[in-house]
Design brief:
two-stranded antiparallel ribbon; MULE transposase domain-containing protein; about 300 residues; Nucleotidyltransferase, domain 5; single chain; alpha+beta
Length: about 300
C-alpha cells in the first residue's frame, strides 16, 4: 500500500478542513482502476467558486491498497498526520459506511465529526424493505425516516431530530404505524422491520446523521458523499474507464491534480473556470501584474 500526496494538498487540508470555517473531507474507496483499491480524499477549496457559485471539489491525498481492512485505512490517516501534525484537527469526515475505514479515521482524527451518507442509508433501508416484501409501503416508511416534500413545505423525518432523545422518542411512536403498514402487506407474518431498524440502523443514524450531528459539521441538509462520487468520476474519465498498471494510474492521478492546481492559479488572474469567492477577492491579481513578476517581491533570494 502507498499514500500519494503533495505538500500543497497537505497544506490545503489544513487550511480548508481544520479551521473554524471548514470543509468536510469525503473518503470513499473506488475500484475498477487496476488490480487494487483506490481511496481518494476530496474536499472543497473555500477560496474559489465555480460559475454556479459553489466551491469546487478538490482531489486530495490518495491511498492505494489491496484490502479494505483496518490496517491500510489506519496507515492512510496516520501517514497524513505524520506528514502534517496539524491534520489531527480535521473537523469532520464523511463516508458511505465502510466500517474499517470509519474505525481507523475515528482513531486518528479523534475530534472529528463522522457523517454518514444519507443516500447510502436510504438505499440500505429500501433494500431491506423490499427484501421483506414491503415494496408497497416502502415509500411511507422511508418518508418517516428521511422526511418528504409536501408542496412548498418539507415534513421532517426521524433523521432531522436535533437530539438523540428526540430521535428515540419519535422512533418509539413510529412502532405501531410501521407494524401496521407491514401487516397490510404480510398479514400472516409477525412484523420484523421495526426491530431490524432498531438493531441495525437507529444507533448509526443517531451517531452520524441526525440534524444535531450534521450541524456540528456545518450541515443542515442531509449529508451525501456526492463530492467523492464526483471526484471518482473525474478519475475514471481521466483513465477512460480502463484499468491500468500502478505507474500509469499514478501519472493519470497527477494529471488530475495538475489540472486542478492550474485552474486555481488561473483564478488568480481571472482567466479560468473558477473565480475567487466574494470573501477572497483581495487575492486576485491583474494579469499584467502577474506576468510581470511584480507579485513575487523585489528580493526573492531568500525564498
Amino acid at each position: 500500500m502507498c499514500v500519494l500526496c503533495t505538500d500543497q494538498q497537505l497544506l490545503d487540508l489544513e487550511r480548508f478542513c481544520t479551521q473554524e470555517d471548514f470543509s468536510t473531507i469525503s473518503v470513499d474507496p473506488t475500484f475498477n482502476l487496476g488490480s487494487f483499491y483506490v481511496t481518494p480524499i476530496s474536499f472543497q477549496n473555500l477560496l474559489v467558486q465555480t460559475t454556479s457559485q459553489s466551491h469546487p471539489v478538490i482531489l486530495g491525498p490518495i491511498l492505494i491498497h489491496q484490502t479494505k481492512l483496518f490496517r491500510p485505512f489506519h496507515y492512510f490517516a496516520s501517514t497524513l498526520t505524520r506528514l502534517n501534525p496539524n491534520l489531527v484537527n480535521i473537523r469532520a469526515f464523511g463516508t458511505d459506511g465502510e466500517p474499517e475505514l470509519i474505525k481507523a479515521f475515528k482513531l486518528v482524527f479523534t475530534n472529528a465529526v463522522h457523517l454518514r451518507c444519507a443516500n447510502h442509508l436510504r438505499r440500505n433501508i429500501k433494500d431491506k424493505l423490499h427484501a421483506l416484501k414491503l415494496k408497497a409501503v416502502a415509500g411511507e416508511i422511508i418518508s418517516d425516516i428521511f422526511g418528504k416534500q409536501i408542496g412548498n413545505a418539507f415534513e421532517s423525518g426521524l433523521i432531522d431530530s436535533e437530539t438523540s432523545q428526540s430521535f428515540w422518542q419519535l422512533l418509539h411512536k413510529a412502532k405501531e404505524r410501521w407494524n401496521n403498514l407491514e401487516r397490510s402487506c404480510n398479514p400472516s407474518m409477525d412484523p420484523s422491520f421495526y426491530d431490524w431498524f432498531c438493531k441495525h440502523k437507529a444507533s448509526e443514524i443517531v451517531s452520524c446523521a441526525i440534524l444535531g450531528v450534521r450541524k456540528r459539521a456545518g450541515f443542515t441538509s442531509l449529508y451525501t458523499t456526492n463530492n467523492s462520487e464526483s471526484i471518482n468520476h473525474v478519475i475514471k474519465q481521466e483513465v477512460e474507464w480502463k484499468e491500468n498498471k500502478l505507474p500509469i494510474l499514478i501519472q493519470h492521478l497527477k494529471n488530475v491534480v495538475d489540472r486542478q492546481v492550474g485552474e486555481i492559479e488561473k483564478a488568480v488572474i481571472g482567466r479560468g473556470e473558477w473565480e475567487f469567492s466574494k470573501d477572497h477577492l483581495d487575492l486576485a491579481v491583474a494579469e499584467s501584474t502577474w506576468f510581470s513578476g511584480e507579485t513575487w517581491g523585489n528580493d526573492t533570494s531568500n525564498n
